[in-house]
Amino acid sequence: DPANPQNATVILDNFFGRQFNSLHNAKIHPTSGNIFFTDVAYGWLNHFRPLPLLPNQLYRFDPNSGSVRAVADGFVLPNGLAFSQDGSTVFVSDSGMAGGFIGNNQTGPATIYAFDVDPQTESFGNKRVFSYIDGGVPHGLQLDTAGNLYAGTGDGVEVGDVYCR
User: Fold this and answer.
1) Which string of b and e fits 52-66 if b means at least 16 CB within 10 Å?
2) Rounded Cα distance, 161 and 150, in Å
3) d(CA 126, CA 104)
4) Which terminus of the chain, N or C, has less C-beta within 10 A?
5) Residue 4 confidence (pLDDT) above 60
6) Domain boundaries in the chain?
7) Is cis: bond before 5, omega within 30 of 0?
8) 110 vs 38, higher pLDDT
9) Residue 157, pLDDT score
């Protein structure tokens, strides 16, 4: 709230009683309005959050019902996400190569994955590699109306055409 006294309301801070690690990126699904977000151990890796209590994964929050559930797991450090205009595909970056205070691990992922989004459950399936980022680590993602996927990579912005894959 930008007006005095700048109050904030927490709408979600745990998954079945376990505190989230470090909520990182969020996007609103273009058709359902549900909120999708990544939760990752960056806070712990950078010494400002306690040891993780949950796996590094993606969640869906329904603001109407208040329900929250995991929709995808198996990431090292999930980071940014972006939906196609119709919401049928989601792109997720895994920046597992960046290890915070541990340092970079060149064998970790620096990868953007594409998933199909189930139209009924909004769970993510059919995981496939969309792009490997060679010069940096993929962070935030955004799609434009022409189908270009933009990725902040730490050393710049990389752009890929989602229709060429």
Assistant:
1) bebebbbbbbeeeee
2) 9
3) 28
4) N
5) yes
6) 14-161
7) yes
8) 38
9) 66
